[in-house]
Amino acid sequence: MPAPTADLMAPQSQPVRPFTQPPSWHSLAQEERTVRRRRRMRSADLLVAAAWTSVAAAIALFFASGGAATSTGPSGIVTAAGIVAGLAATDLLLVMLVLVARVPLIDRTFGHDKALAAHRRIGKPALSLLLAHAVLLTLGYGLSDGANPLRETWQLLTANLDMTLAYLGLVLLIAVVVTSLVAVRKRLQYEIWHLVHLVSYAGVLVAVPHELSAGAVLASGTPERVFWIALYVLAFGAVLIHRFVTPLLTSAEHAFRVEGVEVIAADVVSIHLRGKHLERFGARGGQFAVFRFWTARTWWHAHPISFSSAPSRNRLRLTVRVLGGGTDRLTRLPTGAFVSVEGPYGVFSDRTRTAPYLTAITAGIGVTPVRALLEDSALEPGEATVLLRAGDDGATYLWDEVTGLVQAGGGKAWSMTGHRPRGVKTWMSAAAVEHQVTLRRIFPHLLDSDVYICGPQSWADLVAADCRKAGVPAYRIHLERFDS
Ligand SMILES: Cc1cc2nc3c(=O)[nH]c(=O)nc-3n(C[C@H](O)[C@H](O)[C@H](O)COP(=O)(O)OP(=O)(O)OC[C@H]3O[C@@H](n4cnc5c(N)ncnc54)[C@H](O)[C@@H]3O)c2cc1C
To answer: How buried is 356 (Cβ within 10 angstroms: 0-12 exposed, 13-18 middle, 19+ buried)?
Structure first.
């Protein structure tokens, strides 16, 4: 255990040059960052507007092409409500697919984790609308046929193969949403959850025949049919291209192979990869990729892993802490093993900086993207301040490299080791809390900084909350989540 004073904070380096006034580099780099940020905001607005417009257009097309005329009387109104719910649900399901397709524009605009979070948020409303679609149509048709809901359900289910497949799709999507609920997901092995999740593609696809054949909503030759076919092609095309074709081409072009595995600590290894033409790979320090290591023991589990140093022309380095069986097997990778790659992904890089100063706060293995980000940033004296946090001296992975980089860039690195005090909601060590250390004391330029945070989930959330409380605007807080 470290001594209590060392537990608080110790400067790991001193500024190379004393820094007082922001020099001229601020204005130049700042202009570029402002332009980039405006561009991202414009893309974000356009993408969100496109998603909502597609839902609105789907409903408007229905009403414009005769839906309004048939929405009369109790059965007509209930049936129309059921159709609208189904159209909105299907549109949202396709938006969800696009969000997980890893489309470069979406990744560059929002980041992969935010796209996934949006995908998760839409899941429950989409399923509710789908259930409403089934219930309302059953009631609406029942009202017009004079059949009770149970008989009507049976009639619909057995009407033809298209309808049976539509019910199957509904059941599959219910299974996907249920396994995504936090409580259930935590109990499932990642691979099982992932496999069930892949079923959602089938769930959406098996419902297509009933959409095209049932009723006159998407009748042949209508604008609605063209609109929906275009949406399906767009969503499934995005998945096919960005999740299958591009990764295949990327892996073939760069032909990554394991060059060696280096032990960093008892439970941490660095995996050195060698590849070709990495200047075309387009990776930035701070980003991650999804790696699959083609050995008999590891090929079936892909891992998202950040680069732990800035990619060079022919080399990549990953630093991995053993968490479960999958990462444990990575510690024994043989030299020469082929590695396929999806990526690079993520906005945890200096491309998303908006402020003159760079602040980074990391804990444990969360140091990896920050290490690469610092290496890939052209730092000016005084620009970067880094706080390295660890529960104990055994978790100080890559600290010497980070402090070296910060020092070379004329910045300041601090360390804070020691566990958090019991019963206090804080991300700091007990000693730091006792000495009333605050973010503003560690980072004098905090409010003029972009803050990059990476570490265990609940810890990182506390750091982000502390930053917001200190006055850092949300768009300047960049969190990398290792739990996806
Ligand atoms: C963007 C990102 C960057 C990461 N960078 C690093 C890094 O630099 N160094 C490092 O040590 N770890 C990193 N991780 C975490 C790493 O991916 C997991 O620790 C690892 O995949 C766990 O696999 P496992 O089989 O050992 O454990 P398991 O027991 O199978 O999984 C443990 C947890 O890891 C997550 N996980 C597992 N596989 C995947 C997957 N294919 N996709 C998404 N999440 C998965 C799940 O949330 C799961 O609950 C990163 C994760 C993400 C999302």
So the answer is: buried
